[in-house]
Amino acid sequence: MITSAQPQLADTTLCAPLGPTLGNAEFEFIRHVIAENAGIVLGPNKRHLVQGRLAKRLRELELGTYEEYCDHVRESGPEELVGLINALTTNVTAFFRENHHFEALASYMLPEAMKRNQQSRRLRIWSAGCSSGEEPYCLAMVASEVVPASARWDLKILATDIDSEMVATAQRGIYPVDRLAAVSPERLRRNFRRGTGDNAGNARIDPALARLISFRPLNLLKPWPMRGPFDIIFCRNVMIYFDQPTRERLVARFSELLADDGYLCLGHSESIHSGTSAFRLVGKTIYRKGGSISRAL
Ligand SMILES: C[S@@+](CC[C@H](N)C(=O)[O-])C[C@H]1O[C@@H](n2cnc3c(N)ncnc32)[C@H](O)[C@@H]1O
After folding, report:
1. Which of 268, 280, 289, 283 is nearest to 104 (CA)?
2. What is the pLDDT of residues 74-90, one digit of tens each?
3. Is 209 helix (H, G, I), strand (E, B) or coil?
4. Kind plus residue range of the DSSP H or E element containing 84
5. Contact (CB, 8 A) for 59 and 25
6. Ligand 1, residues 161, 224, 239: which to mutate, most atoms within 8 A of Cβ?
7. What's the CA gap between 244 and 270, in Å, rounded?
8. Using CA atoms, how far apart are residues 255 and 107, in angstroms rounded to an integer?
9. Which of 24, 171, 197, 273 has the most crowded CB, counting CB atoms within 10 A?
10. pLDDT value at residue 294
11. Which of 164, 183, 20 shows the shortest CA–CA distance to 94?
12. CA angle 120, 122, 123 (to 5 degrees)
């Protein structure tokens, strides 16, 4: 039953936007800045979303209007760009999201890479757009099951995101227990430590698993410091926010950094058009660079 101890608010109050209103000119400016700097295309219907997400930022900066906020973005340059980007990225993720990718990782992506790299014993995986870390930790859990620790493989996972706050959260590796429903009891036992005292209700990633991963802030639109080659790249549910030319440029850059026969996994609504790239579709949103089409659907 819903009880109402507070006096009812008039409808007009409920409909009125909370805090300052984002005007047309300021919305257009923010759309332009976020597209130019992060590649994120915000449609003209996203004004309320932008206003909602930036309201906290205005309060933090003690600014009363969006005009003032836009001036602050112009004047502070790269500094506030970080705040703006962090506020406007969509960071939805989950442990073992789109689990078929992790099944494929165990059943053929990693075994093939191990066969190919038998001499170098080097394995490299990149989680590009890792958000709060669930994706790279799942990569690490599966890889540590498949790659025998005793055989001295040089296994490293790079996890990057443009959102510096997400990278910090990912690096902390602490998650509410109710976010771990998709992790099997065996994997929970092996890879998590249950929090006690102030940390009751949370679980921490085991340091041995975390050591496999390097977390770094990285804007996918900017130059990349790493040389590769990577055996496997996960870039899932990131390109969906970009326009088509940006997606194509990114796919071409992934291809340059992937080993021949390496794999690229995309999100459920993302795809690469066959014929326009070095990639072949070999599974549900799983692409292989070059090579034969033996696993094609
Ligand atoms: C929806 S999350 C996807 C997380 C994870 N890959 C998954 O599928 O569960 C998208 C992530 O892409 C990041 N992102 C957006 N634009 C980016 C850019 N230009 N460079 C790097 N990361 C970006 C966002 O910060 C966000 O954390």
Report:
1. 283
2. 999 889 999 999 999 99
3. helix
4. helix 78-88
5. no
6. 161
7. 11
8. 22
9. 171
10. 41
11. 183
12. 145
Q: For residue 211, what is the enclosing H or E element? A: none
∠ CA 135-139-145, rounded to 5°? 145
Sorted by where each starts, the structural domains of the chain and their CATH numbers stand as: 11-88 (1.10.155.10), 100-289 (3.40.50.150)
Ligand 1: which of 89, 169, 239 to mutate, judged by most atoms within 8 Å of the beta carbon?
89
- Rounded to two decimals, the pTM is 0.91
DSSP assignment of 6-52 equals: SPPPPHHHHHSPSSS---HHHHHHHHHHHHHHH-----GGGHHHHHH
Whose structure tokens read 């969006």? Answer: 66
Q: Answer yes or no: is the C-beta of 97 below 6 A from any ligand 1 atom.
A: yes
Task: Give the residue from 269, 260, 249 showing the smallest Cα distance to 288.
Answer: 260
Q: What is the pLDDT of residue 203?
A: 97
